[in-house]
């Protein structure tokens, strides 16, 4: 009987040996998966999530510079304008207030600015379309979040967006420059 017990122990030990070595390899599988998957997921997030958001955010600034550069250099055919028109005709928009996006209506922005144009009848055009221009401006301000306004170039970007919104309303480029006299976030 003693022989049966020892042979049974040997069989049990022999059966347990492959399990122990296989268990050791299977214990390393999650570590190997993490080492391989984390860099791959990080790369995918950077390329397909973060990079497109950054491109979208910074695409407005180069487009604005290109538009201003095209106006200064000449028309679409490469011809230079003989006389460069200066934006000297002002029109003031006072005390425009809007909620900031994502603030649950607890944060506000209040702006006052003067829009300048080279069109002599700009004050008349602006007064006739005042409601539309104010609505377009409030639309731009309402899309802003507190994070957008923390950017050092926020006022410049807001200025460009307001100019483009006014251009869409008037269906032509009338406003060339905007200067803020009040830009308050509360």
Can you offer a commentary on this structure?
The protein starts with a helix and ends with a strand. About 15% of the residues are buried. The chain is α+β, with helices and mostly antiparallel strands and about 190 residues long. About 60% of the residues lie in helices and about 15% in strands. It is elongated. It has helices at about 1-75, 120-130, 130-140, 145-150, 155-170, and strands at about 90-100, 110-115, 175-185.
Q: What is the SS-derived class?
A: alpha+beta
| Total beta strands | 3
Please state the CA-atom Rg, rounded to the nearest Å.
Answer: 33 Å
Biggest sheet, in brief? 3 strands, antiparallel
Pattern of helices and strands = HEEHHHHE
User: Could you name the CATH topology of the largest domain?
Assistant: Tetrahydropterin Synthase, Chain A
Q: Return the CATH class of the largest domain.
A: Alpha Beta
CATH superfamily of the largest domain: Band 7 domain
Residue share in helix = 55-70%
Envelope shape? elongated
- Overall pLDDT confidence: 78
CATH architecture descriptor of the largest domain:
2-Layer Sandwich
Relative strand content: 15-25%
Number of domains: 2
Helix-strand blueprint:
Blueprint: H1 2-73, E1 89-99, E2 108-117, H2 122-128, H3 130-142, H4 146-149, H5 154-170, E3 175-185
Antiparallel strand pairs: 1-2, 2-3
Helix pairs in contact: 3-5
Question: Can I get a quick summary?
Answer:
With 186 residues, the chain is an alpha+beta fold. It is 61% helix and 17% strand. The chain has a 3-stranded antiparallel β-sheet with strand order 1-2-3.
């Amino acid at each position: 009987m003693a022989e049966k017990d020892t042979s049974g122990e040997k069989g049990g030990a022999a059966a347990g040996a492959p399990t122990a070595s296989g268990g050791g390899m299977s214990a390393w599988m999650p570590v190997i998966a993490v080492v391989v998957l984390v860099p791959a997921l990080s790369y995918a997030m950077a390329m397909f999530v973060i990079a497109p958001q950054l491109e979208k955010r910074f695409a407005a600034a180069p487009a604005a510079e290109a538009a201003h550069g095209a106006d200064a250099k000449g028309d679409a055919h490469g011809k230079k304008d003989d006389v460069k028109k200066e934006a000297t005709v002002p029109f003031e928009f006072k005390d425009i207030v809007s909620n900031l996006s994502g603030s649950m209506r607890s944060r506000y922005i209040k702006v006052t600015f003067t829009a300048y144009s080279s069109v002599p009848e700009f004050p008349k055009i602006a007064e006739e379309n005042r409601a539309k221009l104010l609505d377009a401006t409030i639309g731009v301000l309402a899309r802003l979040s507190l994070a957008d306004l923390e950017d050092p170039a926020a006022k410049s970007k807001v200025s460009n967006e307001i100019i483009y919104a006014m251009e869409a309303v008037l269906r032509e480029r009338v406003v060339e420059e905007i200067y803020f006299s009040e830009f308050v976030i509360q």
